[in-house]
Design a protein that fits this description.
The longest helix is centred in the middle third of the chain and has 15 residues. The protein contains 12 helices and 11 strands. It has about 325 residues and is of the alpha/beta class. The protein binds NADP nicotinamide-adenine-dinucleotide phosphate.
């Protein structure tokens, strides 16, 4: 198995995680993972959740948006490393990979298929449609049924699958009734092209509307220790047993650095000897049993650090201190 060079900081972060008493779950394979150290802790240490009643995934996934070029446009700066990140994610037990046709555009989906297809049993590739990229700076919404059908069929071809396990409507399009967009996904599902339907970037009303039309198995909204604006949507997910997939889970945006909770998280990370991204992920996992974080990275060292966070447990007092 490939063992990448880790920076001193990564090693310190991971060793620190072990020393500060991370708890390993008793899932199969963890004994050997523990022997290899936290750098190789499998994603199963985060526990599992059931998507749509039939697909069980480890609660630490991978967001494949960052394996594209700068501005999520074109090929990655280091294609060899990007491919290695995908392979390493699967080696570490990640079995939920999130992508979208808009990433690149098409670059992320193409790389995933090139590196991982035919997919190992149990690996779920979730993709999205409903955004288009006419130029690097633009992420235009297109929720027209005809576009969604074309986008879904193109993703099926790029990903080299006959059915997409989880197809997410990337964002509601204000120019198109949401019911029309979701209705088209229902048709694609009936035709066998989609197994499960997810929504993304929705408020409570949009979420409720989608749920009145189809079985929604996941919501993907921006959420992290410093941005909890989707708490009401998360509450509905918890009640209904729907997966909540927080994007921007690491709270890396400098605008969030002033948040009190983010500062408390940084202090706790320092105290526990773990990295701030690891603390951000451990907080999310403890925040709700329906949480399925998908941290994104273009680097194996960051991937390993992030996956190791699946084994970190915060105590109730530590969670209260973060607020
Ligand atoms: N539904 C939506 O509208 C939507 C929007 C945005 C994202 N997403 C999804 O959510 C996923 C995650 O979102 P995101 O990528 O915006 O946010 P994120 O995972 O919170 O942060 C990713 C950023 O953090 C860096 N990073 C990752 N791990 C790190 C570590 N251990 N130490 C230091 N830096 C680290 C990455 O750079 P390096 O490459 O240098 O590691 C990257 O710049 C995406 O991949 C995508 O699948 C969905």
């Amino acid at each position: 198995m490939h063992r990448p060079e880790l920076s001193r900081r990564d090693l310190l972060a991971q060793t620190g995680a072990v020393l500060s008493g991370i708890a390993f779950a008793s899932a199969a394979g963890l004994a050997s993972a523990s022997a290899r150290g936290a750098a190789n802790a499998p994603a199963s240490a985060a526990g599992t959740l059931r998507l749509g009643g039939d697909l069980v995934v480890n609660r630490l996934g991978f967001g494949a948006m960052r394996i594209c070029g700068d501005g999520i446009w074109g090929d990655p700066a280091d294609p060899v490393e990007a491919r290695a990140v995908l392979r390493r994610a699967v080696e570490l037990g990640v079995n939920f990979i999130d992508t979208a046709d808009a990433y690149g555009p098409y670059v992320s989906e193409n790389l995933i298929a090139e590196v991982l297809a035919p997919y190992p049993k149990g690996l779920l590739i979730a993709t999205k449609g409903g955004l288009v990229r006419p130029v690097r700076e633009k992420w235009d919404r297109d929720g027209r049924p005809a576009h969604l059908r074309e986008a879904c069929e193109a993703s099926l071809r790029r990903l080299k699958v006959e059915r997409i396990d989880l197809y997410q409507m990337h964002a509601p399009d204000p120019k198109v009734p949401y019911a029309d967009s979701i209705g088209e996904l229902a048709k694609l599902q009936k035709e066998g092209k989609i197994r499960h339907i997810g929504v993304s970037n929705v408020d409570e009303a949009q979420f409720a509307e989608a749920r009145s039309l189809v079985q929604v198995v996941s919501v993907q909204n921006r959420y992290n220790v410093a941005d909890r604006s989707s708490d009401p949507v998360l509450a509905v997910c918890e009640q209904a047993g729907i997966a909540f997939i927080p994007w921007s889970p690491l709270s890396q945006n400098p605008r969030e650095s002033g948040s009190g909770s983010r500062q408390a998280l940084e202090a706790l990370a320092a105290k526990r000897g773990i990295s701030v991204p690891q603390a951000a992920l451990a907080w999310l996992l403890a925040r709700s049993p329906v949480m399925l974080p998908i941290p994104g990275t273009s680097k194996r060292a960051h991937l390993e650090e992030n996956v190791a966070a699946g084994a970190i447990r915060f105590t109730p007092e530590e969670m209260r201190a973060i607020g």
